[in-house]
UniProtKB/TrEMBL annotation:
Known EC number: 2.5.1.75
PANTHER family, per database record: TRNA DIMETHYLALLYLTRANSFERASE
Cofactor: Mg(2+)
Catalytic class of the enzyme: transferase
Region listing for Disordered, in residue ranges: 35-55
Protein name, as recorded: tRNA dimethylallyltransferase
A Pfam family annotated for this UniProt entry: IPPT
Family recorded in the similarity comment: Belongs to the IPP transferase family.
Lineage: Eukaryota, Viridiplantae, Streptophyta, Embryophyta, Tracheophyta
Length: 448
C-alpha cells in the first residue's frame, strides 16, 4: 500500500473522503514499497514526454459564506503568481459590491480577478454561462503561464466547472418565445403554483422542487421539454456519471492503488475552508451587521436596485441573499412614507442574519458530498494553511491535508445540542440609538 493511503482504505466513508483527491490524481500509484519509491522518483523528475501528458493544475478554494475563502485565495494567488476566477453568483454584477463582499480595488490591483463586474443587474446569470466564462478564463490564465485560482461558494457553478456541463439541448429563439408566451400571464399575475403545475403536467415533476418565484429556472425547464420532449432529468449529468464510474474504481484502488480521473479536463486541487458551526454563525452575524452599519453599503445598493425599477426576487441579482431582504425592508419603508422604527429595522437585521446562516448550512451540506474537496480548518494559523496549499501545488505527492490542518466533515454536521445553545447577539446594533443614523437616512432617501 502506498504511503498516501491509510489503513482500511474504502472501509469507511470518512477514509474515502480523505483519500479521494489523491486516488483521483492522474498519477498512477503502485502497491509495493519498491514501486512506490519508483513513482516518487518519477514524480520528482519526470521525463519530458511525461511532463507533456500532465494536466494543468487548477486550484479551487471554496467554503461557506463568511469562512474567509476570499482572503485565502488572494494570498495563494499572490504567492504562486496566480489570477483569481470568481465563482460567486453575485460578484458578476456591477454595483453590487458590499452585499457580495466583492474584492476591493486594491485587491484586484494586486491580483488580477476574472468574472467580477461583468453584467448589469438587469441581466441573468446561470451555471451554464459560468461554465463557459470560467473555462475560457482558466485557459486564458494558463496560456499566459499563470496559475488559475478559482474562489467562491456557489456549489452548482463549481460542480459544472469541474465535471462538465450537462448535455441538454439549446433552445431556439422560437421555443424561447413560445415558452415566454405560455408563462407570461402566470408571471404577471403572480400565479407561481399554477405555472409550476403547467410544467409538471408537461412532464417535469421535479419543477415542484424549485424555489418560489424562480421564473428563470422554471422557464428553462419548460424550454428543455418543448425542445426535446424530455425533462431535464432525462439528460446525463457529468458529475453523476463520473462518480458512478469512480465509486467502483475507489474500491479497486484500495487493492491496487490505481484510480484514473482521466475524464476531468484539468488537475483540480480543491480545498473547502470550514469551521465549527457556532464560530461560523458568529462570523456571519457580525458580517451582516457590518454590511449595514454604513448607509452607503448594502442598504444604498438595495435602494438603487429599487430605483432602477427592479423588485425583490425577479432575477438573479434581486434574489441574492441580503439584497432581497434589504429591498423588501426598504419597500416597506417607502410604503410608510420613509418611516421605520428601530424594531422594524432589527427585525429586518434578524431575518438577514438567519437567511445567511441557513445559506451557509446548505453550502456545508452540499460540499460534504463533494469528495474531490479536502476540508481545511479555518481556525488554524493562516500562514500554515497558505503554505500547505502552495507546497501541494508544487508537489502532487503532498496533497493530503495534514491532520493538524484538517477539518473533519462530521464535525460540521448539524448538532442540535450545539445550535440550541446558539443565540444571535448584535455586536454593532445593540440598541435603538445604534440604528438612529440608519433611520435618519431612510427618512431622507426613502420618501416616495
Amino acid at each position: 500500500m502506498c504511503w498516501e493511503m491509510r489503513p482500511q482504505l474504502g472501509t469507511t466513508r470518512r477514509t474515502i473522503w480523505r483519500t479521494w483527491p489523491v486516488l483521483c490524481s492522474h498519477h498512477k500509484l503502485s502497491t509495493s514499497s519498491h514501486s512506490a519509491k519508483k513513482v516518487a522518483m518519477a514524480t520528482a523528475s519526470p521525463p519530458p514526454a511525461e511532463k507533456k501528458r500532465n494536466k494543468d493544475t487548477v486550484i479551487v478554494i471554496s467554503g461557506p459564506t463568511g469562512a474567509g475563502k476570499s482572503r485565502l485565495a488572494l494570498e495563494v494567488a499572490r504567492r504562486l503568481g496566480g489570477e483569481i476566477i470568481s465563482a460567486d453568483s453575485v460578484q458578476v454584477y456591477r454595483g453590487l459590491d458590499v452585499g457580495s463582499a466583492k474584492p476591493s480595488a486594491a485587491e484586484m490591483s494586486a491580483v488580477p480577478h476574472h468574472l467580477v463586474d461583468i453584467l448589469d443587474t438587469t441581466d441573468d446569470y446561470s451555471a451554464g454561462a459560468f461554465f463557459r466564462d470560467a473555462r475560457r478564463a482558466t485557459q486564458d490564465v494558463l496560456d499566459r503561464g499563470r496559475v488559475p485560482v478559482v474562489a467562491g461558494g456557489t456549489g452548482l457553478y463549481l460542480r459544472w466547472y469541474i465535471y462538465g456541463k450537462p448535455d441538454v439541448p439549446q433552445s431556439s429563439m422560437d421555443t424561447t418565445s413560445a415558452v415566454w408566451s405560455e408563462l407570461v400571464s402566470f408571471r404577471e399575475s403572480g400565479q407561481w403554483e399554477e405555472a409550476v403545475e403547467l410544467v409538471v403536467q408537461a412532464g417535469d415533476p421535479k419543477a415542484l422542487d424549485l424555489s418560489v418565484n424562480n421564473w428563470n429556472r422554471l422557464s428553462r425547464r419548460l424550454e428543455i421539454i418543448r425542445s426535446s420532449g424530455s425533462p431535464p432529468s432525462a439528460f446525463a449529468l457529468p458529475y453523476e456519471s463520473f462518480h458512478e464510474q469512480h465509486d467502483t474504481e475507489l474500491t479497486e484502488a484500495s487493492a491496487d492503488g490505481n484510480c484514473e480521473a482521466g475524464k476531468l479536463d484539468y488537475d483540480f486541487f480543491c480545498i473547502f475552508l470550514a469551521s465549527s458551526r457556532v464560530e461560523l454563525y458568529r462570523s456571519i452575524d457580525l458580517r451582516c451587521e457590518e454590511m449595514l452599519v454604513d448607509t452607503g453599503g448594502l442598504l444604498s445598493e438595495a435602494s438603487w436596485l429599487l430605483d432602477i425599477g427592479l423588485h425583490p426576487h425577479i432575477n438573479s441579482a434581486t434574489r441574492a441573499i441580503g439584497y432581497k431582504q434589504a429591498m423588501e425592508y426598504l419597500l416597506q419603508c417607502r410604503q410608510n412614507g420613509g418611516e421605520s422604527t428601530p424594531q422594524e429595522f432589527l427585525q429586518f437585521l434578524a431575518k438577514f442574519k438567519s437567511t445567511s446562516r441557513n445559506f451557509a448550512k446548505r453550502q456545508i451540506t452540499w460540499f460534504r458530498n463533494e469528495m474531490i474537496y479536502q476540508w481545511v480548518d479555518a481556525s488554524q494559523p493562516f500562514e500554515k494553511v497558505v503554505r500547505f496549499i502552495c507546497d501541494a501545488y508544487h508537489d502532487r505527492g503532498a496533497r493530503v491535508v495534514p491532520e493538524s490542518l484538517e477539518m473533519k466533515r462530521e464535525s460540521c454536521m448539524h448538532r442540535t445540542r450545539d445550535l440550541k445553545t446558539y443565540r444571535s447577539e448584535n455586536r454593532v446594533f445593540r440598541g435603538d440609538d445604534d440604528c438612529s443614523h440608519i433611520l435618519d437616512w431612510i427618512r431622507r432617501t426613502q420618501r416616495r
